[in-house]
Structures are given as structure tokens and as C-alpha cells.
Amino acid sequence: MARQARLTVPGYAHHIIQRGNNRQAVVLDDEDRRRLLEGIQEHGAAAQVAVHAYVLMSNHLHLLVTPATAEGVPRMMQALGRSYVRQFNRRHERSGTLFEGRYRSTLIESERYLLACMAYIDLNPVRAGMVAGAADYPWSSYGHLVGLRVDPLISPHPLYWALGNTPFERERAYAQLVEAAQGSAVQAELAQGVHAGRALGDAAFIADLERRTKRRLQQARRGRPPRAAG
């Protein structure tokens, strides 16, 4: 049976994960990482996709984005796949595919999950045991969001701006949010959501998405329907 097309809705936040084929490495050195970030920035801008958070791991990457059009995310990811893989293969004298054929993506209810999703993404290296704290990893959005460096890739979401009236207030609030997020139940929800490719939000959010997209998004209950009484 053909897989259902990924859901992309303009103006909504999307959590994306793209893995290496057979979980192989998608970056081998810092030059690869710089080129991959440049590609995300270039193709995101061309496709009118704002990037709010990211992390580059050895064999996968996470993005939190908002597209301006329904074609924005697939257009960005397709162009990134073509250009980056061509560069990677040329640099490392290899051929063939690099990424899995399909990236995973899920819509999230911004008010409920967006800041938590940013924290989930920035905490990836910590969960993997690569670093002690998010600030120790240079290949994520965390450094920009807490004021350690300026990253031209990042377009802060309005909910990030609402964390404080000054840059210092926002940066301190976000650092505290990330610290508090470690091991939370919401982090587990976000992991399950993006791997299952299902929208995350309350009942009203899911119902509104179903009306907008004409697609069933609620998980059907397993087993036989209950018998009618009487």
C-alpha cells in the first residue's frame, strides 16, 4: 500500500528529521557541517521556509521550521538533498545515496509544543552523551538562542521573542527552559511524534487541521468497534 503523503501546511511549525541511509554518517568533518548548514540556509530561503532550531548529529539532523507555502518544506528538502549529496560525494570520492529516501516530519501545535521542541532539538547531543551541556555543542541552534554566537540561519519564532523584552531576558529564559526540559514527558512525546509522522496537539488543534487538510489525522482505535447497547 502506498504511503500517505507527508502533511505540510503553511504557517504551521514542522519538526523534521532526516537520517543517513542505513544510519550512515551524513557529515564526516566540520567542512561537511558548514556546507550542510549553508545548504539549509540557501534552500530554506529559496523555498520560503523559516528555520527556528536545528541540530546536526553524525548520522541525522533535526530542523524546526515554518513554511510560507505548502510546497516549501518538500522543495527545501529535495534541493538540499541534491546539492549537499553532490558536494559530499565529490569531497569524499564516493557515489550513491546518502540520506534516507523520505525525511520524517510532523506538525506541532506551537503554543503547546514549539519551545519544548526547540529544547528537544538542542538537547540531542546531551541525550546522546556527546557533551555535558547543550552549550558545549557548536552544531546546533542553542548557541544563537542563548547569545553565545550569531547564526544567520536562525529566524526566531514569535514565541521565542515573547520570552523576554530584551535579548538578555530571552536568552536567559531559553537557557532555563532547556535545562528544565531534560527528561520531561513532553520530550518523549516529541520523539514519538516525529518518528511516527503524526501531528502533535490537543483535540481542537487536530480537528482544525483535519478541516483544513481534508485528511484524517487522529489515530484510529485498534480492535473491533464496541457493540451498540440494547
3D structure, described in words:
This is Transposase. Residues 9-124 form the Transposase IS200-like domain. InterPro entries: Transposase_17 (IPR002686), Transposase_17_sf (IPR036515). Pfam families: Y1_Tnp. This protein has 230 residues and is of the alpha+beta class. The longest helix has 21 residues, at 72-92. The radius of gyration is 18 Å and the shape is globular. The chain has a single domain, classed as 2-Layer Sandwich (Alpha-Beta Plaits), CATH 3.30.70. It has a 4-stranded antiparallel sheet, sandwiched between helices. 44% of the residues lie in helices and 12% in strands. It starts with 12 loop residues before the first strand and ends in a 17-residue tail after the last helix.
Q: Give the % helix.
A: 40-55%
Q: Indicate the structural class.
A: alpha+beta
Number of domains: 1
**Count of helical segments?**
9
Number of strands: 4
Q: What is the name of the CATH architecture? A: 2-Layer Sandwich
The CATH topology annotation reads as Alpha-Beta Plaits
What is the beta-strand fraction?
Answer: 5-15%
The biggest beta sheet reads: 4 strands, antiparallel
How far apart are the termini?
A: 38 Å
The secondary-structure element order is EHEEHEHHHHHHH
